[in-house]
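Sequence in, structure out. Go.
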Amino acid sequence: MRVLLLVPLLLLILFAPVRAEAEESTKSGTLSFVLENDLFYNIDRHYTSGVRLVWVPDRAAATPRWAMKAAGWVPWFPAEGTVRPGYALGQSMFTPSDITIADPPPGERPYAGWLYGTIGLGVESGRQLDQFGITFGMVGPASLAEESQKSVHKTIDSDEPKGWDTQLKNEPGLVLTYQRSWRELAAKTFLKNEIDFSPHVGGALGNVFTYANAGLTMRYGRRLPNDYGPPRIQPGLPGTSDFSPTSDFGWYLFAGVDGRVVARNIFLDGNTFRDSRSVDKYPLVGDLQFGLVLDWPSARLSYTHVLRTKEFRTQKGNDDFGAISLSVKF
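Output:
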């Protein structure tokens, strides 16, 4: 598949900064790129693509005063811990099961796009991580999802999506998110490698997403780094863009589950204040994911396979998609 051609390119990008920065004693931060796409499995439907760029300042950098004050306003944050801000930009797109139909029939998932920015705060206290984020953006034509998908499909010579005239209408979006994760619970050694478990709980509140979630991630590998798994795009299992490897090279396999009780998903429910296409969603959604992480002192590469249960009642089957991420310390 053409999408798999991205893997060698990412590997080239990966090793270049590792060599160039090997002699650097300090870093300014970590930049992560996340791509989620169903074309990894030669399908093109529902949650069809998501991209996200995340910047997290280095652990040694001074925490901005605004971040310290804001952390004190979040009632669930621990009183003690290391406060760190983070910033992200992303775009997600959703389509029906057949993108060659200009007027999708009733019961098909609506065309929709989501262009957003996120300001986040994380407080790490020992083996506990609390993450709070404010995400704001646009749903609808202003998300530029139509232009993005048509451009990519033209480049890779794939089917032209013809139904974007039926997409959700423009609507500003605001989402507040919170996650708490615990790392290395029940850490053990198995077959000369390390294994640990990281449970999490959290939720989202806003006109784009409103849900409560909980789950568990297992890691198994050599010299497990100090992280909470690779980054993902909301909604999904939590991870971290920053990482702290414990050796020159490490690896681990991981698997995780996440369950969500969904009260609001604009990409299924339709626009909040205007008439639009919609489907009848399921209130309970689950994700199962598994994959591989490779990390070096200045870079981390991961691949995740995600299986997602049906999200709406007229959906004919479960969804699966791939997620690849690259984090580089600069």
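Check: The chain has four helices and 13 strands. The two ends are 31 Å apart (CA to CA).
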